[in-house]
Amino acid sequence: MAGMATEPQVTAVIDAVEHRPEGLTVRFDGASEPVTVSWRWVRDHSEDPSSLDPSTAQRLVDTFAIPADLTPVSAELVGAAVRVTWADGGEPPSLVSAARLAEAAGLGPPAPLGLWSADAPLPDGPAWFSHDSVAADDGALLAWLEAIERYGFGLVDDVPPTAEAAEALARRIGYPRATIFGAAMWTLSSAVTDHEDSAYSATFLEPHTDGTYTVDAPGLQLFACLQRVGTGGESILVDGFAAAERVRATDPEAFAALSRVEVPCQYLEPGVHLRASRPVLRTDPGGRLVQVSFNNYDRAPFLLPPAEMERWYAAYTRLHTEFNDRRHWLTIGLEPGQVLVIDNWRVLHGRMGYTGTRVFEGCYHNREDLESRLRVLRAG
What we know:
- With 380 residues, the protein is α+β, with helices and mostly antiparallel strands.
- It has 9 helices and 20 strands.
- It has 2 domains: 14-104, NE0471 N-terminal domain-like (2-Layer Sandwich), CATH 3.30.2020; 111-380, Double-stranded beta-helix, CATH 3.60.130.
């Protein structure tokens, strides 16, 4: 299972437009079917300076004053945009770019996913990126973030083994997210006693995702190794999307149950009781996987009718078996100066038990901040 199925290459280039009673029909280069948008939508999304603020991209047109019976006189291609002239003269001509139409229609291929497992290993093994290049060069930063986007994790070597260097690297992605574990960064070690969580121990941890008890689980998790003396402690990574797709292919009813039933999780410590609920496998309206949310340590009690509860347990156990099949694990023994960043919505992480000293500096990032950084760098 090397990745998602290849989709047709659709570009934001308009081949033709057609004026119809129900709306504007646009045919894009490479698209199998045309896209039709209502005339009110066209007026609402006009990009002329009187309708869209050119500096903030915020809407200026009064959506609620657009006549329901707004009628066009003409629609024509003007460069890389469509210009529509309205019949009553009360509305200025609308100009909507091909890029805006294509984005709204959801055209274009999704970000490429390189699903990996024992049957489809990473093409060249885990890729390491140089700290000096990622820290100073936006091109190298983009390559690193695109590796995270494609494979669900990214590695950086030769990072100064200090909390300050770890935070500086984290801020190349975006601002670290404040949580109960720290205003920005946090220290992870069995010597830390501020939190009575299994992460702050030296024991084996099964693969899991973090923040299942938060309404908006962290999108990224960063681990920077500062100290390591002893044995064991390797980080375990599992491609949750690849495992979920194996379940979908072999047991679609189990996949459906895991994507339908909302599972509550919670985090408890003195003065804190966090709780959130969502399906273990979250999909978009088209059925594409969006998020894996799996942490049996933090699962809270919930009830279904007995027969349905048993079906859910069977599905949950099936997925757990996939996550804990060690053939599909990637284990990485981080040493001081090495940093691992994980897509916490896709890749599960765990830890082998260890002896001695193991000190990490870490943080979380919001999902939208990774996506924002990618958009900015690609546009750069």
